[in-house]
């Protein structure tokens, strides 16, 4: 198991060490050869003088191709003339562990040199780009910090099924599959099962897992398969409690990323990571409509009245930034027609909010209706009574008041690093026209 990473090499100056990695570059000059070798943490220069003693090494280097993998044993020495960290490895042995047999079909070091579809076709090469590696390190740190936060706050991790017997939530936009001698579906979210955990007395649960949406959308922020960070909490009485919790969760994650990768993100992505202050601004939907029309001449189109669309989300962020100097905003008081049937209502208005960040919705959070009779009536309104019969059973035998939300992992990463598309922030993108590689 590899335990010597290039970022830590300065500890081994003057010692004989063994390194492994990709050949990043080769310079074969008249009297000397240089290999630049990289691993997931950095690069090191390997210097081989051309002479009789190094004849075998010289021959190996002359036949190495860029992007081959090597295992090199040698002495690490300090050299102020070496621009790469002021040190070099003088090898005693070079082993080519895997040879790159063909010229690469794209220049992964320059993301502008190939179209996005070509890059996705060769994603295994595209991911060798330094920015892509950093992106997934950032994502790992962000999600791990959020996970540690909820565990520290006594949450229980659950793993809900992704193969379900009935179309969930909306009754549409689900992938159907053959399950032995019957139909089944891929889950759009763990929503119903999170609420089942509430009726089981788990009180606080979370899940980080894939979700599937059969949306024929090719927008920058949609995918047919993505990962969701889901939260559900019992004994929540107000929407403010839920918003306050999500603020703390996001601040925890962003603070950790800024601490570890803030400088590198600025260098490679040109993005300053801003850790937001509490509380995040809140605004009612109707009030927001008025402000957007007054400030920008924007009027919501008829079919989206009572909800938000991508244009209004962008303008909402612009307005909040100008008025409050804040990147986040909670929008409340949506129309019941535009919200899920299981949202709790007060005077006919769902008790919930959308959280907008950098012009894009990242969360719909809400209190849930836990009264059996009321829930049955709200499901009937949406013509879902039969489809959600199994779900309604959860509320017949006592269920505490509760609420929750979900955050798309890749969408959160996209907005944090301002990549402009989910295709960039997903390890392997899945959309209406892409199921490979």
CATH architecture of the largest domain: 2-Layer Sandwich
Tally the structural domains: 2
Mean pLDDT: 95
Rg from alpha-carbon coordinates: 27 Å
Find the CATH superfamily of the largest domain.
Bira Bifunctional Protein, Domain 2
Description:
The strands form four sheets. Strands 6-10-11-18-17-16-13-12 form an eight-stranded mixed β-sheet, with helices on both faces. A five-stranded mixed beta barrel has the order 1-2-3-5-4. The chain is 31% helix and 27% strand. It is built from twelve helices and 18 strands. The chain has helices spanning 55-63, 116-121, 123-126, 130-152, 191-199, 239-269, 285-296, 310-324, 372-381, 389-392, 409-417, 422-425; strands spanning 16-28, 32-39, 42-49, 69-78, 87-98, 156-157, 163-164, 176-179, 182-186, 204-212, 225-234, 282-284, 328-332, 345-346, 349-350, 352-357, 360-368, 402-408. Helix 4 (130-152) runs antiparallel to helix 6 (239-269). The chain is elongated and about 90 Å long. It folds into two domains: 6-98, OB fold (Dihydrolipoamide Acetyltransferase, E2P) (Beta Barrel); 125-425, Bira Bifunctional Protein, Domain 2 (BirA Bifunctional Protein, domain 2). A hairpin with a 3-residue loop joins strand 1 (16-28) and strand 2 (32-39). The chain has 437 residues and is α+β, with helices and mostly antiparallel strands. The model has no long low-confidence stretch (mean pLDDT 95).
Summarize, please.
With 437 residues, the protein is of the alpha+beta class. It contains 12 helices and 18 strands. The chain has 2 domains: 93 residues, OB fold (Dihydrolipoamide Acetyltransferase, E2P), CATH 2.40.50; 301 residues, BirA Bifunctional Protein, domain 2 (2-Layer Sandwich), CATH 3.30.930.
